[in-house]
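Hmm, what's this shape?
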Amino acid sequence: MPTERRVRRLLRRWRRRYPFPSEWVDDRANRQCRRSETAWLARFAGVDGLKRRDVRALATWAFARDPVRLQAALAGTASPSAWGHARRRIRRALAAAHASEALDLVLASHGGVEGWDVEVATMVLASCRPEDYAALDTRRLQALEGLSLLTPRQPGRVEREDWLPYLQACRRLTRLTDLSLRDVQRALWAAADGVGELPERRPPRAVPGASGGRSTR
């Protein structure tokens, strides 16, 4: 694992590359995009529930370039009965005290919202509770694995069991870098395209600080 100083430097540099991680993109342009995105997402932060148009807007924002996942994300809004169930589960998830409970309430595999896998579910949770949760996907797992902070259960895939270790790692990085949880997840997303900069893979270390804020129990 690299030193804390190096991790801090890497995360801050990667954050500047979001949402266009390519080296040639101007940091100023990226910063303007981040500000615009943050302003747009502010409408969802702290809400007690979502409307159907909110889910559609979030799904389109997150998965416009992934038609299969976009279709899955919208499955829970396809009919009045599906949406009624989805609306109730989302409201309960946003009121949940613990991360695992919140995730299970909206995961399709646990009777949650039709079509929602871990990537869709955590995107919605992170959008509505940005101080508590971070969106989980294969790109971010790849970055954390390169930093020796997390080993995914299945290489190249996101599993439900990755959720709590992922949150713990992200929260540790917020304390280490003084970045917000949202900026940490932005940095990790951008880092996946700079995997060559990551240090040589070593066995992961335990990540302290599992509690605090909304519990990850």
